[in-house]
Amino acid sequence: MGKSNLKHARTCVYNVNYHIVWSVKYRRKVLTDEVEEYLKKTFHGIAEEKDFEVIMSEVGGQDHVHAFVSAHPKIAPSYIVKMLKGISGRKLFLKFPEIKQKLWKGRLWNSSFYLETVGSISEEAIKKYIEHQKTRG
User: Fold this and answer.
1) CB contact set of 110 (below 8 Å; sequence gap of 6+)
2) Active-site residue among 18, 38, 79, 129?
3) Is 129 considered catalytic here?
């Protein structure tokens, strides 16, 4: 593990990373390139405001999101997911109102998510992971 991954806080040194995946409700294919670009900016803004870091995010198949996040151990992973999904969902509906018409009950994201801890969160490792996911179908 490279020392560059270590983050220094007042009371600890840490390297806590998550890979989070969640999908659009009913797997509607609404996450176009334009939406993805806006989502990425939105995720970075949310992370900065809520004191964690989105290292990288990618949209898959226009219907789900991969987010690679690094956070202080005091920040619960469920809180990170809640902030990313909740705030981005509201902002996307405001910016792209046509998306709301494709979804019933005005919810963008499926209520569930997948979360795993990851040791290495280098961009190279992430790209390899995403490419592997694409080849698996």
Assistant:
1) 22, 23, 24, 25, 27
2) 129
3) yes
